[in-house]
Amino acid sequence: MSEVIVDLQHVSKAYGSTTVLKDINIEIEQGKFYTLLGPSGSGKTTILRAIAGFLDVTEGDILFQGKRINDVPANQRNVNTVFQDYALFPHMNVFDNVAYGLRIRKTDKSQITDRVDAALKMVRLSGYGDREISELSGGQQQRVAIARAIVLEPQVLLLDEPLSALDAKLRRDMQYELRELQQRLGITFLFVTHDQEEALALSDEIFVMNDGEVQQSGTPVDIYDEPINHFVADFIGESNIVSGHMVADYLVEFNGKEFESVDAGMKPNEPVEVVLRPEDLDITTVDAGKVEVEVDTQLFRGDYYEIVAYDRLGNEWLIHATNPAKEGETVGLTFDAEDIHVMRLNESEEDFDARLESYEGE
Ligand SMILES: Nc1ncnc2c1ncn2[C@@H]1O[C@H](COP(=O)(O)OP(=O)(O)OP(=O)(O)O)[C@@H](O)[C@H]1O
Ligand SMILES: [Mg+2]
């Protein structure tokens, strides 16, 4: 079992009468890659600042290797941060920015050069050491900020949207670099992004945030396959979400019909929401289909056709199909029982986990 290195227990933060973090409970184990994922204003940066020691929390405890650190100053926490606004030293060149922390720690001069060079190489900035910060693009500055933090090899690295200023190609390269670095050095990463694909690709575990609360935590596969509620299903990947009710265990009604599903543990007739992912829907004839829809529009996306269609109740259906459809045509949609994911309307994460455990693996 891995050691818990950072532990937030019932952490809340309020500014005046506005609560921006509500009862946050997060356990971070040594050596893993964690991501805080959520929309703008959901509290991601606030959590990093609380862990780094740049703000006082209103309630709750922050533990580092089991010791409460609420009152430990930022510079005495074994944590390093890549800030959302980079926070580079504008009067120093690239090399000196990256070397700064090593010099403070009185690292050997010859070692400093090697380590700074290695860090700059990792962020694809070899040869930029003499440049002034003002002579760099936003994406280059962002990479200097990453180099400055990783060169110190802290136990925990907090990264606040560290790739947001990079173009798609460089961003992808840096994702591989960060993941590789994290695994090679065994540093614990707490990474912030509002890009769900990035979170799914990089993380061992994701905390999905909304409105100052953790909505769901789990592996990328768990969160994608078993979203706890409408917000998570909608935010992670693309989803069709329709209202229905649970007829009995493993039998759900929506769109005027009953369907076999793999979900259980709800009350009879309980109202629910049903998630079907666009890639799990196939287009067939009306007779062979489970849901009848009229194709409205389609876009060619390279590796699939993105089709928008409407059923008779006016619900919109998003379909990712390998073959094109005809606009205006009425077609049937099919899907498997396993592709139906049923969500209760207001289930706590605790109840959700317990319910899944009670019937999964039966
Ligand atoms: N000093 C402050 N005083 C009052 N409200 C604040 C302060 N700092 C942050 N907030 C509020 O706290 C909430 C959470 O902010 P936070 O910066 O953590 O969001 P975020 O998830 O990092 O968003 P983004 O993706 O835009 O960076 C926001 O509604 C923000 O307006
Ligand atoms: Mg932020």
TrEMBL record:
It comes from the Bacteria. GO terms for molecular function: ABC-type putrescine transporter activity; ATP binding; ATP hydrolysis activity. One of its GO terms (biological process) is quaternary ammonium group transport. It catalyses: ATP + H2O + polyamine-[polyamine-binding protein]Side 1 = ADP + phosphate + polyamineSide 2 + [polyamine-binding protein]Side 1. Its EC number is 7.6.2.11. GO terms for cellular component: ATP-binding cassette (ABC) transporter complex. Residues 6-236 form the ABC transporter domain. It is an enzyme of class 7 (translocase). The keyword Transport applies. Keywords: ATP-binding, Cell membrane, Membrane, Nucleotide-binding, Translocase, Transport. InterPro entries: AAA+_ATPase, ABC_SmlMolc_Importer, ABC_transporter-like_ATP-bd, ABC_transporter-like_CS, Mo/tungstate-bd_C_term_dom, P-loop_NTPase, PotA-like, PotA_ATP-bd. The complex is composed of two ATP-binding proteins (PotA), two transmembrane proteins (PotB and PotC) and a solute-binding protein (PotD). Part of the ABC transporter complex PotABCD involved in spermidine/putrescine import. Responsible for energy coupling to the transport system. Belongs to the ABC transporter superfamily. Spermidine/putrescine importer (TC 3.A.1.11.1) family. This is Spermidine/putrescine import ATP-binding protein PotA.
